[in-house]
Amino acid sequence: MSDAKPLPTPPYDHLFVIDGSGYIFRAYFALKTPMTTSQGVPVSAVFGFTNMLLKFLRDNEAGGLVVVFDAGKRTFRNDIYADYKANRPDPPEDLIPQFAIVREAAEACGLPIIELENYEADDIIATLARQAREACVQVTIVSSDKDLMQLVGDGVDMLDPIRNTPIQVEQVEEKFGVPPEKVVDVQALAGDSVDNVPGVPGIGVKTAAELIRTYGDLDTLLARASEIKQPKRRERLLEFADQARISRQLVALDAQVPLPNGLESWIKPDPDPDKLRRFLEAYEFRSTLARLSDQLGLKPEAGSKASLPEPGSGAEYELIQDWPALDAWIAAANESGVVAIDTETTSLDPQQAELVGISLSVTEGQGCYIPVGHRSPVGGDGNLDFDGSDAPKQLPRDAVLEKLAPLLSDDAVLKVGQNLKYDMRVLARYGVAVTPIDDTMLLSYVLEGGVHGHGMDELSKLHLGHTPISYKEVAGSGRNQVTFDRVPLDKALDYAAEDADVTLRLWRALKPRLTQARVTTVYETLERPLVPVLLEMERTGIKVDREHLRRLSNDFAQRIDTLEREIHQLAGRSFTIGSPKQLGEVLFDEMGLDGGGRKGKSGAYSTGADILEMLAAQGHDLPRRVLDWRQLTKLKSTYTDALQQQINAETGRVHTTFSQAVASTGRLSSNDPNLQNIPIRTEEGRKIREAFVAEAGCQLLSVDYSQIELRLTAHIADVAALRDAFEQGQDIHAMTASQVFGVPLAEMDPATRRRAKAINFGIIYGISPFGLAQNLGITQGEARSYIQAYFEQFPGIRDYMDSMKALGREQGWVETLFGRKVHVPALKEKNPARRAFGERAAINAPIQGTAADIIKRAMIHVPPALTRAGLSAKLLLQVHDELLFEVREAELEETKALVKQVMENACAPVVTLSVPLVADAGVGESWATAH
């Protein structure tokens, strides 16, 4: 060491070293709800990682800063012990593509990064800590990884980034029972099942700490092992002494890593606002961007259009409080032929919202607000003023609606709105119809589905370069937020009139682009005519048997209670079943079950469904009961309890909301409540669907497209064998199994057919060998051979997949049979993970998008067909490829035949398929019996 050159003195006195690899996993498991971009790229870990980084930068004054990542799985430790980390499972499939993106996140935040082949991040961190100590620089390691705790002391501490708590000598001694300099000896004895560090069998951390405290260090302990009184402990230490020494080499960090740069390189830089903004926009972290907009000047890029004039500085907004003023605006709208409209209400639930006011705009830069339901605003002390002394001046609601109704239903005046279905549904409750319409949200969705979101604020910033007034600015936030009827009229005017003004400007910017983009037909024949259909479905709702749900909830509660008692009895004690930490301790520490006892970075055992399923398959009762307990508790909280609260008191029905502008492929989504995700494959799930019932004298009719995406694959990819099978009405999965695995149809067994079915459906979604292996419980090698055999038998599918990827890369989008453009910007990304997701999207979008277009066409055509036939059936729900109707019993057969006919011919006359569409119908008193 005496010949080593002294390190340059860095221009800071405190270096923060962020354990980037540890951050990734902490971020991934901290977010319970998976997140994906509009292109389907998983970003849960990236989102958490980015926000943790930004929070750290905000909360800590760091002079020096560097982020350290693992460069790969193999390091010098594998040369010492070949099985090092051999038992570690592969990361979750949706986490793998995020590793590269988190590096982008660090770069977007302006942070320097270190990663070196053959060395773990922990070794790099140890080296940085040594260098900093030698340069008299304080070091804080931002991590809670126990393996790094051996570095604590002598100017080095740690910071848990999740809990924001320090880890110093005291905390290390509390965890390991020894000071930091003895941690390596304790770990060498105890081993680590996660990293496959063998240690000495039968010796845990507590025993190891006791031994090291008694004998001072590992070498002394092993030299004097024959003196130990406990026979088993003595025998194991003597037998596995060399294994303990090897383990010490594995857990001891290498502080002599040849780093490419010195300490002077790790100066904390200031983030580049533009670079950070581009990253946040690219991965659609809009909430983060909004939160940082003022702090770092991260304003979204303006569009090419001029900014809107701000209220009071160019825009002319008028508060309507008398009849002549309202008459003047109605006359202006009639003369213009186009009027933008927006409503303000007391709730986001249109089934219960009370109308508070209406805003109109007929000329850009001008707008009006007609208050009809405002009450006294909240006073400065937060209390409502009920004495009426400052009651707002406004026209009576019913009289205003009577005046506006002819305009809103006049075929000669186009009504323009943003997400207009909501406003139409609110007004329909007051007996006011709105027609004809244009919707700027749907215009944007048809033009640029998959490119960005389609909310008004985002579109305004993108196309108009203008940030509208936020709801929080006028109504407050958190506990102080009021409903809109309590907003003072001056604030309500600026907010509401601006919405109508912005909507009109967006319409003028977007509508002409339909022709240029050649998507007019998609908008005019699919999206816009679907609005009144969805509106009627939402208003109608579906009847729900509250008593059935209550009984189910009670039944689930009793079964949950029984399972809890059985689980506690099997465990030998009570514990919190919903706690992964406590469950892991019971399964692996106390019961000693084999095969799943791997710990994460936090030190807690993994108890995911995959682990429990594996243990249950080995014949263990407790994990099987825990799986049952988890399923029942989720069903109870998500469905049987929650749905009871969502039954409308006036109608006795549940009224979901269908969203058109969410999925880039054109699929509808259901929310508040989501009725598309009610499970149907389990008995409990079917019992939940039994709660959805028909009115007296009616039945529920379910009509479902049979294997529509496979049929479309056969047509679009031009696969003759699949086309012929569908044309002849063969069992498509049995036929595929016969072709791929060479098994005659007469000798087909269920297991072989199931493999073929998994491949058939998986290919559509670009399934990987890993995914297929998981589905079928086989090795990845077997799965890979199955997929290869499939492509060899059906080369047209491989050709189709290659052509869609190439076409998508060339033009940035792929297309459904009906002309819907599904943009896939990820195809042109340099990042391999994002590009791979883009390729899968490009393959799937024409198939799934065409299926979505077909069922939308059926939904548009069925109601008028029923009317022409004099039938009274009501369309209630659309769930994936299924339509659900409520039908009078006397009209059942005629309605079933008509709906099947319309659905099976929904493509005509626009598209002619080379395979038949088949719709299967079922009837019952409940959804469960009908489907």
TrEMBL record:
Give all residue intervals belonging to the Exonuclease domain. 337-516
Q: Which Pfam families match?
A: 5_3_exonuc, 5_3_exonuc_N, DNA_pol_A, DNA_pol_A_exo1
Q: Which Gene3D superfamilies match?
A: 3.30.70.370, 5' to 3' exonuclease, C-terminal subdomain, 5'-nuclease, Ribonuclease H-like superfamily/Ribonuclease H, Taq DNA Polymerase, Chain T, domain 4
Q: Listed GO molecular functions?
A: DNA-directed DNA polymerase activity
Catalytic activity from the UniProt record: DNA(n) + a 2'-deoxyribonucleoside 5'-triphosphate = DNA(n+1) + diphosphate
The EC class name is transferase
Q: Where is the DNA-directed DNA polymerase family A palm domain?
A: 685-891
Instruction: Specify the 5'-3' exonuclease domain's residue ranges.
Output: 13-269
Mind listing the UniProt keywords for this protein, alphabetically? DNA damage, DNA repair, DNA replication, DNA-binding, DNA-directed DNA polymerase, Exonuclease, Hydrolase, Nuclease, Nucleotidyltransferase, Transferase
Q: Which InterPro entries match?
A: 3'-5'_exonuclease_dom, 5-3_exonucl_a-hlix_arch_N, 5-3_exonuclease, 5-3_exonuclease_C_sf, DNA-dir_DNA_pol_A_CS, DNA-dir_DNA_pol_A_palm_dom, DNA/RNA_pol_sf, DNA_polI_H3TH
Known EC number:
2.7.7.7
Give the 3'-5' exonuclease domain ranges.
317-515
**UniProt-listed PROSITE patterns:** DNA_POLYMERASE_A
Which family does the entry's similarity section mention?
Belongs to the DNA polymerase type-A family.
UniProt-listed PANTHER family: DNA POLYMERASE I (PTHR10133), DNA POLYMERASE NU (PTHR10133:SF27)
The function of this protein is: In addition to polymerase activity, this DNA polymerase exhibits 3'-5' and 5'-3' exonuclease activity.
Subunit-structure text? Single-chain monomer with multiple functions.
Identification of the protein by name: DNA polymerase I
Q: Give the species.
A: Aquibaculum arenosum
